């Protein structure tokens, strides 16, 4: 009996050791990936790659990628590891231009995992790939022209007035303190609700509205939420599991409200100059206003097949689910990014009173000329405001990392490095935007670096990329 028990324990021990050995092999098998290719790289830690401090919440991902950017100083590119995934970090502006623009047909995807059946809200322009992305992009681009945005300006003004009333009521007579990011979050929630969904939310009167709660739920940082998304992104084997990036409540909410709004407008012949109306037009007519001019650009599939997106829609059926995903993208990309940028902007204005005074003078002059009712055109002529926002986005880029994936074998120009299909690349903006070679005194808030006045050097191309660049830039 004792012999059998000892044998069983030994077998269990060997099984456990074997499983640990297999796990270690899987987690460490790529650690020589860049070394074997002669690429300068930063030595990873097993499982964590070069993002250990990020996973342990000691620092943020953009800050860590910025540090890795500077650790590779002297090189045009270098190898890093996001968990077990080898990633090429790009540093040279000319190389960045090559990937984003010149040879875009090799790098047209972002490489973000997508399971449409499990995550229907994820099937939007940010994640779609290949011909499906290109077809949808060409159809949605006319919805974001200056003319279309001008038609929505009245809704933005209405939301701004609500915020003004709220601030007048809440600001204490003695100055006091306000949590400005929360105020801006309510404001952008109102704007997105109005311009995107045709809803009059007024989050200032109802701070616990479903829209506001969904925004908090998606963007509120929690460790387990971050860890789940991080593993899904960077551990390939986990991507095959049925892990949803969105809660069931959030999926049901957006799918339900968009379907309800589309049904109401179509059955009651209601129209409104907002994003949802443009999507309804796209669904029913196949286009928004006039289609884009014929394009010679092709998309190359992973198997090397050339697809011409001008001939057909490549199986892109504009279902209510797909349209809902675009509405969700509008919400996701416009809510947190705008409120965060506004928060950082007023922070910099508070600690740089000379910038605040100059901007205030421009605001007062514009309001005086417009008799207190500035138009879209009036705002577009405010050059110093434009410079202040640009400098805010340089120091605090909300899209902190540009991601691309090589879709077919490619040799980097001027090197012998042959990239395999599926190789991931990143451009860390917290490195590029803080590189003193391109942005002197990078930690100083200096809007005039964008004014082009006097002897100030022109910012080199592809060193300031808050919205990306090339065909896959922010729409």
TrEMBL record:
InterPro entries with a match to the protein in the record: Cyt_P450 (IPR001128), Cyt_P450_E_grp-I (IPR002401), Cyt_P450_sf (IPR036396), Insect_CytP450_Detox (IPR050476)
GO molecular function: heme binding; iron ion binding; monooxygenase activity; oxidoreductase activity, acting on paired donors, with incorporation or reduction of molecular oxygen
Protein name as annotated: (California timema) hypothetical protein
Cofactor: heme
Transmembrane spans: 6-27
Positions bound to heme: 474
GO CC terms: endoplasmic reticulum membrane
SUPFAM superfamilies per UniProt: Cytochrome P450 (SSF48264)
Keywords from the named record: Endoplasmic reticulum, Heme, Iron, Membrane, Metal-binding, Microsome, Monooxygenase, Oxidoreductase, Transmembrane, Transmembrane helix
Gene source species: Timema californicum (California timema)
Main localization, broad class: endoplasmic reticulum
Compartments, as annotated in UniProt: Endoplasmic reticulum membrane; Microsome membrane
Family: Belongs to the cytochrome P450 family.
Protein's membrane topology: Peripheral membrane protein
Superkingdom of origin: Eukaryota
